Every structure is written in structure tokens, then in C-alpha cells.
Amino acid sequence: MISHKTFLRGAAALLLFVSGGLVAAQSGLKLPADLDPGSRARLPYLQRKDVDEASLKLYDVMPGRGQDGVLRGPLAFAAYNLGAAKALFDLHNAAVAGSLDPRTRELSIMVACRETNYSLEWNGHLATALKVGVDQNVLDVVRTSGPLTGVSEKDAAVIRFGRQMFRDKKMEPATFAKVVELFGRKGAMDMVAVMNTYAVSGFYAIAVDERAPEGRLDLLSSPVH
Fold this sequence. Notes:
Elements: H1 4-13, E1 18-19, E2 22-23, H2 56-59, H3 82-96, H4 102-115, H5 119-131, H6 136-144, H7 153-168, H8 173-207
Antiparallel strand pairs: 1-2
């Protein structure tokens, strides 16, 4: 959810992970009966024609709007409450403008996507993460929930921070102290903000059981545990 352009160019930037001969992507699997074939989720995408007059001003500033009047992308389901969607977008913009360097920020995003099985933004940020220097092997560790042996101190600190926050729901003193040592107090709080901004969209995706398009990485088929 880095920018309006990132929302719209996501399809062009999507890549597949291939690890150990396994392509972690959908391959013609039939969608569950309760999913809308257009959105591949339990709710259809919101359309401009369905929005009441009082909410159109909010709808018209949402990133992800197509020329067909359909709202897609990370805010697609949050936009059923357009005020909440706008607040989430504003929170995102503030979070990513914080003190984290691009590499740390992108790794933080990928960790949050992994922890919420959020395929859309994982795919959308993959090319950016690689471009800013996150190594493929580090992304594989995140995706497969692999051990942190051999991962650099900084990357391990970010991954461990996210795993404990989302998975354990308890932050060990040493984990927090290491992140503060490496990124500062503000950096630690910016990491919380970045991870949780993306996790919120991930929670929407969980609620509506959003599935990745065919041929793209589906984190549901590459579970954490």
C-alpha cells in the first residue's frame, strides 16, 4: 500500500516464488461456493454506482479505482465503510513516511503479509522488496516461516519482532531491545505502525476469504505452520 501507483501497477509487478521445485501458486483450483468470482472473496468489489451521494467524495479519492468505477486493491473491502478506508489509507501514508529505511520497511511489510496470509500485498510488494535489497533467501525464510539461522542480525530482528507480535502476542524483552538498538525508539514504533497497517488490510482479506488470482502466489497454500 505504498502509493496510488503501487496499487495500480501491482498486476504488472507480480512474480511467483519457486522454492524446491514447488510453485506456491494457484493452479486452476475451484473457488469455494461462497466466493464472488469477480473479487475472489465473500463480498463483491464496491462500485461507484452503489455508493450514496454523501460518500462519493470519499470514494473518489480511494486508490485502486478503475475506469470501470470498480474499487479494487488493498482497500477494496475496507471501503464498505469509506470513512474507515480513508482513515486506514491516511494511517498507511503516515506509517510508511516514518524513519525506517526502504529495505527495513519492505521487509516489515512482507512479514506482516506472511503473518496474515495476505497474498495481494505480498505479491504487490515482492518486486519492490527485491529492488531495495531484501534478499530472495530472506523472503523465502519469511514465506516458509523458516529458522533465522544464517539471516543477518538486522533482518532477523525484524522477522522475530513481527513473529512475536502477531503469532506469540507477546514481545520478549531481548527482541524489543535489539530492535531499539538497531533502529532506535522511533524506528521500533514505526515498525509497529507499518506492520499493523498492512495487517489490518490482511484481516479484511481473512474475513472475506480473499484468494489470489490464478497463477499468483497464494499464501494460504504456503501456510506458516
